[in-house]
Amino acid sequence: MDLGTLGTVMNTVKELTNELNYLGTLSNAVTVSGPDHEAQAWMDGDASHLGEFEPYDWGGADPYTLGEPVRWG
Question: Does the pTM exceed 0.70?
Answer without folding.
Answer: no
